[in-house]
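Please think about what follows:
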Amino acid sequence: MDDELRDAERRLQAAQLASDVAALDRLLDDRLVFTGPDGRVSDKADDLRMHRTGTQVIDTLREDDLSLLVAGDTGVTLFLGHLSGSVNGTPFAARMRYTRTWIRDEHGWQILAAHASVVD
């Protein structure tokens, strides 16, 4: 089960880097709740819109560490890495920690909730 969740996390990273909205749509649960580094809460539609419109562009995404916890059909990934790109045309570069809660059903792993923080 750990390998399946690790694969889903890596597919998510690739989809974010490519702004692959179709892949993101498959990996994000319709009930997604995401808390960004600024404390704002967004949902799946917001996430897909940002990628579809180019409001958010990720140019680099480098994984430094990835930890997993799986309990039945629930999993948590703890990603630590470097990201750069732009949001609303403003460049950013940061070391980030993402904590993602995944659920698994007959369609595979999907993210139900996530939180991102900037790490010094």
Notes: The chain is about 30% helix and 55% strand. The mean pLDDT is 97. The two ends are 32 Å apart (CA to CA). Strands lie at 28-35, 41-42, 56-71, 74-87, 90-105, 108-118.
